[in-house]
Design a protein that fits this description.
By secondary structure, the chain is mainly beta. Strands 3, 4, 5, 6, 12, 13, 14 and 15 form an eight-stranded mixed sheet that branches. A five-stranded antiparallel sheet has the order 7-8-9-10-11, covered by helices on one side. A five-stranded mixed barrel has the order 16-17-18-21-20.
C-alpha cells in the first residue's frame, strides 16, 4: 500500500485536475480560445504516446522524444494540476513558473532550466509540438520536487501533499467504468458524498483480502477507502484513491440480488406493523437508469439498515422526511408507485469527519 502511494506524487490544490472527459493540452497563450487548444490523443495504441497521470488522475498525453528515450509531457497541463502559475512570454518563447517560494523559467529549445537563480540541465530541451510546450518528464521531479514513476508508456507524478491520506467508509451509490476515467461514489448520491477516482495503482480488495476489479463492485456495497487528503472543490468533491476494500463479507453478499436498483430521496410515508417499520415510500431520483424515482419498499428482517458510512442503524431512523437511499431488486409490482422489497436502506445521518493519517 505504502509503495503504491509513493508511486503517485505532487504539490497541489487538486481542484482543476480531476475533471472527467477528454484531456486537453492547453495552448501556450493563456488567452487562446478553446478551439485553438491542441488535443493530444489518449490512445495507447498510437506509437510514441505517453499516458500522463498526476495525483492519480489522467491529464493530457505526452510522447516519446525522437530517440525514444525521453518521455515528454505537456507543461501547462502539469503546472495546472500542481497549482503552479504559468506565464508565457511570446517574445523569447519562454514560460515563467511561480508558486509560493518556487520560481523557475523554461526556454523553448534550450536544455537550461533556471531554478531560484541556479541553472540545471536535464539532457533534453523543451520543445513545442502542435502549439503546446513539452518538457522532459524528469522536469517534474528535478525542478518541481514531485515524485515521478515511469512504467512502460505510463508516467505518474505525485505531490508531497498527496502522500497524506484519509480513510473513510461509505456505501457505493455510483460506479463509472469508462476505459480511462474510472471512479466510484460513496457517502451520498448526486452532489453528496465523495467521488473516488481510481488509477492503475489503486488496489481493490474483498473483505477476505482477494484482489478485485471494478467490475466486481456494485452499488449498495459497503467499502472502506484510503484516499488523498486533497480533494477538488466540485460537488461532489473528487480525490485520488489508493485502496478500496469491500467490507461486506461473501456470506453477506449472498443475499444481494444479482441486479440492483437504487433510489435516493426522502421518505414520504412510513407504515408500522406490530410496532416496527414494515414499509417506506421514497420520492427522489433514480441511481440506475431503469429504476423508478418514486417507489414503495417493504422492510423485513433481512433488510440491511445502515448510515452513509456503512454503520448499522435501527429501524427507528426510518422516519417521515428522512433522507435515504433504497437498494432493491428490479422485481417490482406494476402499481404506481411500484412496490418492492428493500435489500439495503442507507439513512443520511450527521456526518463525522474522517480521520487523517
Amino acid at each position: 500500500m505504502k509503495n503504491n502511494m509513493k508511486k503517485v506524487s505532487t504539490v497541489m490544490a487538486l481542484s482543476m485536475a480531476l475533471s472527467g472527459g477528454a484531456a486537453y493540452a492547453a495552448s501556450l497563450d493563456n488567452t487562446a480560445p478553446p478551439e485553438k487548444q491542441s488535443i493530444v490523443s489518449t490512445s495507447s495504441s498510437l506509437a510514441g504516446t505517453v499516458q500522463v497521470s498526476i495525483n492519480g488522475t489522467a491529464v493530457a498525453d505526452g510522447y516519446w522524444s525522437n530517440d525514444n528515450q525521453t518521455a515528454m509531457i505537456p507543461l501547462r497541463a502539469l503546472t495546472e494540476a500542481l497549482g503552479i502559475e504559468l506565464q508565457w512570454n511570446k517574445a523569447d518563447k519562454s514560460a515563467e513558473l511561480t508558486r509560493d517560494a518556487l520560481w523557475t523559467q523554461v526556454f523553448t529549445g534550450k536544455d537550461r532550466y533556471s531554478v531560484n537563480k541556479m541553472l540545471l540541465t536535464l539532457g533534453t530541451a523543451p520543445e513545442i509540438k502542435d502549439g503546446t510546450l513539452y518538457v522532459p518528464a524528469v522536469f517534474a521531479e528535478k525542478i518541481l520536487h514531485a515524485q515521478l514513476t515511469t512504467t512502460g508508456n505510463q508516467v505518474s507524478i505525485t505531490s508531497e501533499e498527496e502522500v497524506k491520506t484519509v480513510t473513510e467508509r461509505g456505501v457505493i451509490t455510483r460506479i463509472s467504468n469508462q476505459e480511462k476515467y474510472q471512479s466510484i461514489q460513496i457517502g451520498g448520491a448526486n452532489q453528496d458524498g465523495i467521488v473516488l477516482n481510481l488509477s492503475k495503482d489503486s488496489q481493490l480488495l474483498s473483505a477476505e483480502g482477494k484482489e478485485l476489479t471494478l467490475a466486481d463492485l456494485s452499488i449498495g456495497m459497503v467499502v472502506e477507502a484510503e484516499h488523498s487528503l486533497m480533494t477538488t472543490r466540485s460537488l461532489p468533491p473528487q480525490t485520488p484513491t489508493y485502496k478500496v476494500t469491500v467490507l461486506d463479507t461473501a456470506a453477506e453478499l449472498t443475499a444481494q440480488p444479482k441486479e440492483l436498483f437504487g433510489t435516493s430521496g426522502t421518505i414520504e410515508n412510513v407504515n408500522i406493523k406490530e410496532g416496527t417499520v414494515s414499509q417506506i415510500e421514497i420520492t427522489g431520483t433514480r441511481l440506475t437508469e431503469t429504476a423508478p424515482d418514486h417507489v414503495v419498499l417493504n422492510i423485513n428482517k433481512d433488510t440491511s439498515l445502515l448510515d452513509q458510512n456503512g454503520e448499522a442503524v435501527d429501524a427507528e431512523q426510518l422516519t417521515k422526511g428522512a433522507k435515504v437511499i433504497g437498494y432493491y431488486s428490479p422485481m417490482l409490482t406494476r402499481s404506481l408507485p411500484p412496490i418492492g422489497t428493500a435489500w439495503r436502506v442507507v439513512v443520511e445521518l450527521p456526518m463525522v469527519q474522517p480521520k487523517a493519517e
